[in-house]
Amino acid sequence: MTPMMKLINALNALITALQEIAGEETKIEMGQFVEIYTPPELEEPPAQETKTSAEPATVTLDAVKSVLVEKSRMGFKAEVKALVKKYGADKISALQESQYVAVLKEAEQIGK
């Protein structure tokens, strides 16, 4: 075997070893990521839910829009569009103010 072929084989072995190490390190890092980070969509602040269910609050278009935009970003774009259409609107800003509470309740159930 020529010296060039030996070098190529050694480099190939090095690349393979580095790829294996990178794969193992990625698995380890992802495991740690899951342990120290909880995505916002999985966090449920119980104090806020109790307040909103105990007393009727005024729901604004901004609150509805915020929830629907977040659900769209989470990958539920089709569900959000269907919900808005269900209430007879083509876009969020076309929803009737009287529908905000109902839309918000249904929107919070998307993805659960």
Sequence-ordered SSE layout with sheet pairings:
Blueprint: H1 3-36, H2 46-54, H3 61-73, H4 77-86, H5 100-109
Helix pairs in contact: 3-4, 3-5
Question: What are the key terms here?
Answer:
single chain; 112 residues; mainly alpha; 2 domains
> Mean pLDDT score, rounded?
82
Q: List low-confidence stretches.
A: none
The major β-sheet equals:
none
Number of strands: 0
Beta-strand share of residues: under 5%
Helices and strands: which structural class?
A: mainly alpha
Count every helix, treating DSSP H or I runs of 4 or more residues as helices.
5
Number of folding domains?
2
Helix content: 55-70%
Give helix and strand order, one letter per element, not per position.
Answer: HHHHH
Shape: elongated
Radius of gyration: 25 Å
Describe this entry's structure for a reader.
The chain is mainly α. It folds into 2 domains: 1-37; 40-109, no CATH class. The protein is built from 5 helices and no strands. The protein has helices spanning 3-36, 46-54, 61-73, 77-86, 100-109. Helix 3 (61-73) packs antiparallel against helix 4 (77-86). The longest helix is centred in the N-terminal third of the chain and has 34 residues, at 3-36. The mean pLDDT is 82.
